[in-house]
Amino acid sequence: MLYVYLTEGCNLACRHCWIQPAGQGAAPAGQCLPLETLEFILDQAVPLGLQAVKLTGGEPLLHPEILGILQRLGRRGLTCVLETNGTLITSAIVAQLAKAPHTQVTVSLDGADAATHERFRRVPGCYAATLAGIEALASAGLRPQIIMTLLRGNEEQLEAVVRLAESLGAGSVKFNVLQPVGRGKELLAAGQGLLIEELLSLARWVEQDLAERTGLPLFFHHPLAFQPLSRLFADRSLGCGQCGILGILGVLADGSYALCGIGRHVPELVFGDAAAGSLRDVWEGHPRLAELRQGLPSRLQGICGNCLMKHMCLGGCLAYNYEAHGSFWGPFWYCHQAWEAGRFPASRLALRKAAREFG
User: Fold this and answer.
1) Does the pLDDT value for residue 287 go beyond 70?
2) What average pLDDT does range 164-190 have in this prediction?
3) How far apart are CA 123 and CA 37, in angstroms?
4) Which of 34, 27, 32, 28 is nearest to 10 (CA)?
5) Dihedral class, residue 46 (left if φ above 0, else alpha if ψ from -120 to 50, else beta)
6) Which CATH code, of 3.20.20.70, 3.10.20.30, 3.40.50.970, 3.40.250.10, is assigned to 2-246?
7) CA 309: distance to chain centroid?
8) Which of 51, 61, 118, 315 is the most exposed place for a label (fewest CB within 10 A)?
């Protein structure tokens, strides 16, 4: 799967964005991936087993050739996953998405009312525009997934967002945990993130209570070690808390290959440029990717190295791990904080006696 960061710009200014887009408003041409470059990459990726393309950003719908991009993906029969804030949805975009054989759309919504959502998105009027976008997608049968990032100030609105999603015709709801990357670091430093104990309690309530009172699939984005067994082997197409790191490659707006969007801020995780070499050489021969394939999961450290789920979870978000530890192998922050708080599930530990040594 390619994670394609179509543009460096965004029309919103979200407080919690981990990508930190270059600016607000229409993205200059130099900050958008050219359509011909994407086609060149796709031509090389399909023989390597490409199955799906995730379009993200910044805000991918800012791309001036977004309709052409959607058309090309549809013609190739590739699954297209579109991540958007929903404010720029048009009838033409909806029609093109509906034509594609395999389309999944996720829309960010951080509150059940305008005041809450716009507090975090920082653009007046964006709440109404997002709801209109969700309704337009749902009316075409696309039934988008709503993604809500949990922050200090919206943690009491989870059920209200689910009820709103039901009324709008959404297909599912996913609750994301604020990551300590990008602007998320600033929010956490300012006390705007939830404590690990709060996150664990909310997750349990969502999975054991709220999920039983709605017809919508609900997903709580936390590591597999904390998820109930009944959900581990269910359909996880849009709900999986893991990124599938061994099967993805990022494509940045400047045409470079990277682990993911983290490459915009961590030069060591940029693997080359589409204009300067073949995708096959990067995918099959780059030393960073070889390091991942050879080291996962055996080199994971701390609580992650002692977790029964490490063969499925693969260390949580390795982009965060690298930024935090300078290597891929340090423990994922969520699991480490849960361990320190005495809240890591004992049933998911591989060596319970040795586990006492971790701290």
Assistant:
1) yes
2) 93
3) 32
4) 27
5) alpha
6) 3.20.20.70
7) 20
8) 51
